[in-house]
Task: structure prediction
Amino acid sequence: MNDKRINRFLTLAIVALSVMIIVLAALLVQKGSATLANSKEPMPLPMSSNGVVFASEQQVIDEQVAMEEAQKEVMLGAVISANTGVNIRTLPSKEGDIVLSASPHQLVQVTKLRDDGWSFIMYGSRGGYISDEFLVYGLIVKSASGQTEFTEMSLEDAVAGYFRENPDAPSDTFSDIPSTEEEETDNVE
Result:
């Protein structure tokens, strides 16, 4: 009878120790993942015990990279190259009313290109025309995490890069907007 009690006690002790080990392991894993989540370091690649990434692990990594790439937004952009504020206007000429003044070195989104030396841009939530002489073109890339990067390049390379990254965009996305005189001429019969 005494042996049964000892066996029962040992079994309960083993079960209790096992539960404590599992709880401690869960706490350590939780603390470790919280530390990784709060760190600015990139997550380490999953690896086997010998340091080799298995094909299934690589597939997961590739899928995560593809998801991040799909969630980025690529836009035609420019930086204001003037050392002082530049006027953004209602019309593509110096006769257009001033909508607002853009700060030097400010990043703007270019939405339309004209062949008369003016572009239509978005400056924050407001849009207007600005002379191309004050723009340095490139691509704006906004990641899903909200980070914005600008890469300076020629206008031709920036437009080509935009369409490479946005293959479903209409081919006339940045096409010229007819000038006011052309619109009036087209409407006269």
Remarks:
- The radius of gyration is 30 Å.
- The first strand starts at residue 73 and ends at 80.
- Confidence is low (pLDDT under 50) at residues 177-189.
- Residues 70-173 form a domain with the SH3 type barrels. fold (CATH 2.30.30.40).
